[in-house]
């Protein structure tokens, strides 16, 4: 005789709803606070002002920058390049790179386990359904880890959105966090290197790095779109598989 699934506990469901609502309020507050900072960091004058402020904080300035990098991962639509460039300006190519990678790891841990705990309702609060559906091929993909690595490795792709989506896939936490951290190494290091050369006044190298990053990013966007199109064509028809 087929067993029916146990009914959901109303108290647990209420707690989850309350937690999701609290997360939405917190995310709205963070976004309101962070967006002006991101606008400031996108301008050279703003970067210099931010650098002076971080320097004035001494050792604690590093923790502030680390927290900003974490927030950039959690608030998926905020671009990461300004934070990475400023990190390179403040702590050099290697120091800025390590700071950004640690922030990426901590932010990815927070998102991944939050999605595993609260499921799809948490994601749909931040990401449109049609965007989420475009990654449905990851749920039952036989080469899930390889596809996830490629998507994170390609420059110019929405990596922070993928961080949310991955929590609904069967990928193991260790493998995902390793991929989310190490697959970003080339793009993160190139940005912190650009910030470091900018701080040294080596503008020729800075412009060259930005040109190379821009060209590779265009190729990455093209490759990402091709991969998404091919994966979409390989998907079973709607209703045959469970979407993430």
* Through-space gap between termini: 29 Å
The general outline is globular
What percentage of the residues does DSSP assign to strands (E)? Answer: under 5%
Compute the number of structural domains: 1
Computed Rg: 20 Å
Number of helices: 11
Largest sheet: none
Number of strands: 0
Structure class: mainly alpha
The percentage helix is: over 70%
Order of helices and strands: HHHHHHHHHHH
Q: Which stretches are poorly predicted, pLDDT < 50 over at least 5 residues?
A: 236-244
Mean pLDDT: 75
How would you describe the overall organization of this protein?
- There is one protein chain.
- The chain has 244 residues and is mainly α.
- The protein has one domain (10-234).
- Helix content is 75%, strand content 0%.
- The chain has helices at residues 10-41, 44-56, 60-74, 81-118, 120-124, 129-133, 144-153, 159-166, 173-182, 185-200, 203-234.
- Helix 4 (81-118) packs parallel to helix 8, helix 4 packs antiparallel against helix 9 and helix 7 (144-153) runs parallel beside helix 9 (173-182).
């Amino acid at each position: 005789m087929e067993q029916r699934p146990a009914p959901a506990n109303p108290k647990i469901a209420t707690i989850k709803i309350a937690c999701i609502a609290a997360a939405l309020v917190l995310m709205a507050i963070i976004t309101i606070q962070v967006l002006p900072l991101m606008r400031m960091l996108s301008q050279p004058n703003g970067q210099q002002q931010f650098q002076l402020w971080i320097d004035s904080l001494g050792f604690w300035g590093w923790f502030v920058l680390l927290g900003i990098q974490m927030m950039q991962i959690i608030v998926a639509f905020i671009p990461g390049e300004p934070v990475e460039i400023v990190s390179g300006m403040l702590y050099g190519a290697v120091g800025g790179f390590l700071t950004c990678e640690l922030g990426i790891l901590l932010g990815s841990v927070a998102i991944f386990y939050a999605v595993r705990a609260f499921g799809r309702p948490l994601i749909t609060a931040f990401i449109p359904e049609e965007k989420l559906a475009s990654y449905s091929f990851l749920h039952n993909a036989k080469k899930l880890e390889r596809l996830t690595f490629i998507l994170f490795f390609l420059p110019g792709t929405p990596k922070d959105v993928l961080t949310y989506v991955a929590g609904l896939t069967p990928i193991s936490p260790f493998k995902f966090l390793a991929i989310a951290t190490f697959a970003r190494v080339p793009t993160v290091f190139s940005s912190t290197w650009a910030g470091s050369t900018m701080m040294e006044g080596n503008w020729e190298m800075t412009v060259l790095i930005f040109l190379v990053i821009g060209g590779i990013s265009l190729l990455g966007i093209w490759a990402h779109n091709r991969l998404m199109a091919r994966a979409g064509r390989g998907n079973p028809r709607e209703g045959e598989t469970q979407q993430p």
